[in-house]
Design brief:
The structure is a homodimer of 333-residue chains. By secondary structure, chain A is of the alpha/beta class. Chain A folds into three domains: 43 residues, 434 Repressor (Amino-terminal Domain) (Orthogonal Bundle); 130 residues, Response regulator (Rossmann fold); 146 residues, 3-Layer(aba) Sandwich (Rossmann fold). Helix content of chain A is 46%, strand content 17%. In chain A, the strands form two sheets. In chain A, strands 2-1-3-4-5-11 form a six-stranded parallel sheet, sandwiched between helices. A six-stranded mixed sheet of chain A has the order 7-6-8-9-10-12, with helices on both faces. In chain A, helix 1 packs across helix 3 and helix 2 crosses helix 3. The radius of gyration of chain A is 25 Å and the shape is elongated. Strand 2 of chain A pairs antiparallel with strand 2 of chain B. The structure holds a DNA duplex (30 and 30 nucleotides). Chains A, B: This is LacI family transcriptional regulator.
Chain lengths: 333, 333
Amino acid sequence: MASLARAAGVAASTVSRALRNDPRISPDVRDRIVALAQEVGYTPNILARSLVGGSSGLIGLVLGPVDNPFYAELMQRAVTQAAARGWRLLLVHAGPGPIEQATADALLQYRVDGCLITSAELSSRAARICRDNQVPLVMVNRVAWEHGSAVSCDNDAAGALLADLLIEAGHRRLAVVSGNPTTSTSIERADGFIRRVRAAGLPEPLRFGGVNSHAKGFEAGQVIAALPAPDRPDAVLGVSDLIAMGIMDALREAGIAVPGEISVVGIDGVAAARRPPYRMTTVAQPLEDMMERALDLLNARMNGVHRADEVVTLRGDLVIGQSARLPARLTAG
Amino acid sequence: MASLARAAGVAASTVSRALRNDPRISPDVRDRIVALAQEVGYTPNILARSLVGGSSGLIGLVLGPVDNPFYAELMQRAVTQAAARGWRLLLVHAGPGPIEQATADALLQYRVDGCLITSAELSSRAARICRDNQVPLVMVNRVAWEHGSAVSCDNDAAGALLADLLIEAGHRRLAVVSGNPTTSTSIERADGFIRRVRAAGLPEPLRFGGVNSHAKGFEAGQVIAALPAPDRPDAVLGVSDLIAMGIMDALREAGIAVPGEISVVGIDGVAAARRPPYRMTTVAQPLEDMMERALDLLNARMNGVHRADEVVTLRGDLVIGQSARLPARLTAG
DNA sequence: CAATTTTATGCTAACGATTGCACAACAAAT
DNA sequence: ATTTGTTGTGCAATCGTTAGCATAAAATTG
């Protein structure tokens, strides 16, 4: 910048102001400087700017296990929407397992303006660091930890809705395959489902699960398929589309028709589950809106003013596929 | 840091040296400072350090469309391996389509030490920016552009290997479903395949494709299924696992047995293709090694010394699944 | 014990931007 | 003609850290 100023015959401060459209710089000088900057390919050093300005323009991103396409889709939204707001993402973690200390420290070292945790697992280390250092924190797709705001889908309602629809369509022996029993997402979805089943006076649903993976869903599907036909459930909820896909794969491999003999439904609305051969009936998370709200929450807390933690819950959208027998009133439309 | 120095009764430079284990600081002073820093929760500001040191510790990451699980898997490796080297990732793009100018500019503004482009599409804008500003650039899974090094799988050999195996197993009417015709990855894989088919004196393979997506593979599969049985190919290569999955889904939906009536093979080795119901026979890209080499290449160019651009090609690993009829010598073992 | 080397620390100037304040130039008002 | 107001620039301090050089204290040597 110094050399640019020398070349333009002005002071460095004038260059700085000209490039940021400070109204106090006369138009002709500004134009000359902008043209010159363009010519020599000058780009301001954001690191230096952050030093004086206080804000780095960086948002820390902690991603869940990306073998679940849901997180990949979430990431894509995060990148796009953050960019639209002029923020950049510092990708500090992606995958299963806890975040390493050295990695979490990077959040502080790079002075991120905020942090986005999109993982159903408890990434307590990153959350703790944010809390201890007043870094605004928003969690997506999970309830808030001790500190931080959260945006998630109404998981309980999603589970309940699917139960209601399956029951209305005449299913009587229901089952649910859960994910990780320590994640709120999995628990709430299963709870909502089971609550409605009980409310309908139907027998207690069969329960499987333990991990949010295709393999675990597949395993559960195999167990279900191996049951004698009269004991077999006639509808199964996989608490995530990934699990539901596994269930469906196992059932079909065992020669059981879906939805002919057993209905399968999932929750998340990932692209992979919507296409053939699954065409999953599922409750889609409103990803676009969720990310929008998440960034709004961050933004409101980024300029230093303290705000109470906030929890936003959005309703999911029912996606009618062909993996479950549904009430006629729905499939007709 | 200034307040820390005051609290410890030393100069700021001493604190700086103590925290970075400068041998010139006496052990007792160092221990006292480290303990104090720990206590007050002090974390050095990397932005400021970069300002004087010249290196930001950031690597720009440009990701391809993450609806292809291959890119998600690649990203996971990038995060893990970069962290192991003490680098952080600045995620500037993820998805299809070109990278925006403002986004690409961020690479310069944040003074990334290097850039990783993992997209088969030509992200010419990011590449151009890197070239114009001497930012080390490594492309993964595609050939080098005008500027930059590259790491990729031996795509031609992968296509050729699969062709040879299918032919050896007795297939006679082959087909190939390509991806984006502008990506080297797709072209090379198809070329290697076709070359071997011709060399074997077999009829010219049927060709489909145009986009690297499940939908396009599905579409091709439907067309193939609709052919009168005698004209139908008996083996199909999807140039990516994603495409191959689409093909398989369409064939099975049409009631055609895979691999009973038609063998299907893919290339990439993504997790989704290896599990049921696909159990794809494919050539897996050695992701771990590819990323390792990519970061090596970046590292060698990051300390300022100029090095000639380099292209590294790694051989893929044959994964024997159950989606294709293979020579007995392989399936027996 | 003086002279010399070693060791540990402090001082200060960078790094590349931003910003409050001072100031020069010029126009308008008294 | 002096004062007041406006407008556009420059100066210098600042952000948090590192690194070269100077220096004081301690340890070694003759």
